[in-house]
Amino acid sequence: MSEAILSLQQKGNFIFDSEAEAVQAAILMHDIGHGPFSHVLENTLIKGISHEEISLMMMEQINRHTGGQLNLAINIFKGEYPKNFLHQLISSQLDMDRLDYLRRDSFYTGVTEGNIGSARIIKMLNVVNDSLVVESKGIYSLENYLTTRRLMYWQVYLHKTAVACEKVLVNTLTRAKDLTRQGKCVFASPSLLYFLENQVDAKWFATHEEALQRYGDLDDSDIWSAMKAWKYSEDKILSTLATDMLNRHIFKVEVNEIPVGEERITDIAANIASKMDISDEEARRYMMSINTIQKDMYNVEDDSITILYKDGTMKDISEASELLNVQLLSKKIRKYYLCYQRFE
Question: What pTM was computed for the model?
């Protein structure tokens, strides 16, 4: 973000020091609403509220404690500040978060194809009509960036091992929550227990002051330590799922290009129910997961990337690129994941 601000300033785009500080504060805090294991807790321990909304609540709380020092950062974060391009640096097809995590995740996973030229893209940024544009010299770096993003999603973020781990964890927490709400004693740290016992949603956060503090107290260690105890639970479903996660004996995953037939699902559920001596309903709810995952590389309607030419003309990347065509760019790839307990 610091490099992007400097690059834009050097091209004559006036950014006050206060705006530069605010946009840096906003990018630092835009994801503080993530719970343990990133997106896993959304729609599991909490419902009907996104991590972005929780990030905003946390920023507003910090703002109250600091006497309004984050007013500008919050306005930029919410897209309510007159300089729209500052908001785009935080949230858009070309935001600084994406340029950062694609390169960093590529490095740490060893997927070398994901190494994008983020420094080159940042140097090519400019502003026209209060919107971010990329100078035409950066078009090849942009093509690489869009292709890389698609590759990283299917090769890393939506890799079947990652999906399987996530499903086991989600189902483990779901079972723990269901048992707690049935009055069963389930080991958990005070903050984790708070979310197991209560149906926490947007309304709950708005009406319970302590909810945000409890949420902020949660981290990965709360979940890991709970699972170490759940491994020895008398409840066979919770015990099996916790053991799966701890021993990395994760769900078997089948990835299909067409929806999974009901007959196949019924067979798997019946097999699990029989081997674990649980009901068919329990097998379906906790020991398997059916998901449709869809991802497109670029959405022209959603938030286009504009290329600026030396003569001042502008084109969308989908028209300007020789390598990428709009049909390929906008094509929505849909895959069907069937995850279920393995017994081998």
Answer: 0.90
